[in-house]
Amino acid sequence: MKQLIDFPYKSALVLGLAKSGTAAADLLLNQSVKVRVNDMKTEETDPIVTDLKRRGAEVVLGSHPLSVLDGIDLLIKNPGIPYDHIIVAEAEKRGLPIITEIELASELAEGPIIGITGSNGKTTTTTLVREMLAASNVPVKAAGNIGKVAAETVQSMGKDERLVLELSSFQLQGTIKFHPNVAVFLNLFEAHLDYHKTIDNYLEAKSKIFANQSEDDFLIYNADDEKVSKAAQSAKSQKIPFSLKQHLENGAWADDNAVYFRGEEIIKRAEIALVGEHNLSNILAAISASKLSGATTEGIRSVLKTFSGVKHRLQFVTELQGRYFYNDSKATNILATEKALSSFTKPVILLCGGLDRGNSFEELEPSLSGVKAMVVFGETAAKLTQSGKAANIDQVVHTDNMQEAVEAAWKLSEQGDVILLSPACASWDQYPTFEKRGDMFIEAVHTLI
């Protein structure tokens, strides 16, 4: 079994179970660290709780007494738990280090780490990097907000495997020594201010992706994003910019004909399967990270010719306490939502609504037979409420934004339920694109405990 080297902590509190907390507790128990777990919503009968107790962990459920910090020298918190939470605030008063499981995972990782962050495009870029490396016969695994939790993934990785991490600002804020060999900073838009309070705090959290890098490392950054470019200048690592607007000899760029990296033509734009200007920016970042991590031009080209993307089209996001979350934000009409609903046999809690194009939703009503509850939002909320009632759905909840919608769906859900975002409407009343709407859904899901 791999061992944590120079790990100074003897006892740790894991605050919030979910996937990241469970993986963190598992890793620590495997390292013979004394573990205490504190969670508000998990039940005593949950198999995870039973297993943790069997392995020697102390588990405190249903409340957050300050005494859970007694005798503790490290706090590992679920990324979505804010720093003004009673336990986190008390830990700060006591001078305890506060981390997320990303920091813990990086302590155990033996091979190179590629960290990817940004307000948008993280999943697409992470997936591209993983696929480009794999197509180049470079051993690689992806984790973080994509696939398995990092603390689970690193325990079975070899020394030569690259670890590609999709990283949120919530995860990055809880790092101290985290040090990716290649860092990617895609973009920065105003988001999560309820958590970070200010855009400057949000940028500071994101910038921790390169804070501990040295001159032997690489920072790939978006030269078209003013805030990102300015923040990148403080990095000690080698800076590799990418741009859709300018020719960059030491970076990646695109013109009307092709995509380039450090003067080499990588692929003709006409050969790229993945469409969208925003995805071209993600492609430039992915090419840079992959090239610097050992990918071949042939491997990169093979991926770009075939990868058409999976995000926002019945995309499985995660499973939390027996609830299965799917992002189908690209369902901008009734037909698309009907197809999505027909994909599930489990009970569905449907999140829907958006731009009012003047149509009714009577056509959707026959497809709502497997829907146990609806959470509606946007200009069409009233119409969708009417259709939900017509389909004999007893619980229809009206919310104002995606964060509220996800929280409402969580409260309505039970183990075994599917929580599906499939709006049946365009996004433009509240979000500039369906991609942004889907990203907000994913980010809201990851704030649940």
Automatic annotation (TrEMBL):
It catalyses: UDP-N-acetyl-alpha-D-muramoyl-L-alanine + D-glutamate + ATP = UDP-N-acetyl-alpha-D-muramoyl-L-alanyl-D-glutamate + ADP + phosphate + H(+). Residues 116-289 form the Mur ligase central domain. Its EC number is 6.3.2.9. The keyword Cytoplasm applies. Residues 312-425 form the Mur ligase C-terminal domain. ATP binds at G118, S119, N120, G121, K122, T123, T124. Pathway: Cell wall biogenesis; peptidoglycan biosynthesis. Keywords: ATP-binding, Cell cycle, Cell division, Cell shape, Cell wall biogenesis/degradation, Cytoplasm, Ligase, Nucleotide-binding, Peptidoglycan synthesis. InterPro entries: Mur-like_cat_sf (IPR036565), Mur_ligase_C (IPR004101), Mur_ligase_C_dom_sf (IPR036615), Mur_ligase_cen (IPR013221), MurD (IPR005762). Cell wall formation. Catalyzes the addition of glutamate to the nucleotide precursor UDP-N-acetylmuramoyl-L-alanine (UMA). HAMAP family: MurD. Belongs to the MurCDEF family. This is UDP-N-acetylmuramoylalanine--D-glutamate ligase.
